[in-house]
Specification:
This protein has 160 residues and is an alpha+beta fold. The chain has helices at 16-32, 69-81, 102-112; strands at residues 3-10, 36-52, 55-66, 85-93. Helix 1 (16-32) runs antiparallel to helix 2.
Length: 160
């Protein structure tokens, strides 16, 4: 059977329990059509890039689905009719990921304070004593402010 990843965004004013209820309803739709929801992940209430239907945040949920295309079609139809869902996307994949998704790994890493692009301390590291900057470099043959040549006078208005 084909595998799918389905992500939907629910309105920001819903409680997490209501979002869980939506997920259970969508899982039931898939199972009624002969499919199976292998796993689901609640990514939390997150900021969205731009306002969608007056919402600045949304609850993100991922469903990993194995099932016939008819099950996914019915799921998408029901999701589109639901007023609590503001966006959704379904992608067919070759194989479902085992373990947590990249979004969950990212949130686990940020909770622990790990940053792979930084040093051990998670910041810029010890920069040490930088000392005095010393005298300013020679400005070369650049003229001082008062030594600059005068500008040509501007054209007068109405000279035509």
């Amino acid at each position: 059977m084909p595998s799918y990843e389905h992500v939907y965004l629910a309105r920001q004013d819903l409680a997490p329990a209501q979002v869980e209820g939506l997920t259970e309803a969508f899982s039931k739709i898939v199972s009624d059509f002969g499919g199976e929801v292998k796993s689901n992940e609640y990514w939390g209430l997150r900021n969205i890039a731009y306002r969608i239907k007056k919402n600045r945040k949304a609850h993100y949920v991922l469903l990993n689905i194995e099932g016939p295309p008819a099950a996914v079609q019915e799921l998408e139809r029901q999701v589109a009719l639901n007023e609590d869902v503001i966006r959704y996307q379904t992608i067919r994949v070759d194989a479902l990921e085992e373990g947590p998704s990249a979004m969950m790994k990212k949130s686990e890493r940020s909770e622990r304070g790990d940053r792979p692009d930084r040093g051990e301390r998670g910041d810029r590291g010890d920069r040490g004593d930088r000392g005095d900057r010393g005298p300013r470099p020679d400005r070369g043959d650049r003229p001082e402010r008062g030594d600059r040549p005068e500008r040509a006078p501007r054209a007068q208005e109405g000279a035509w």
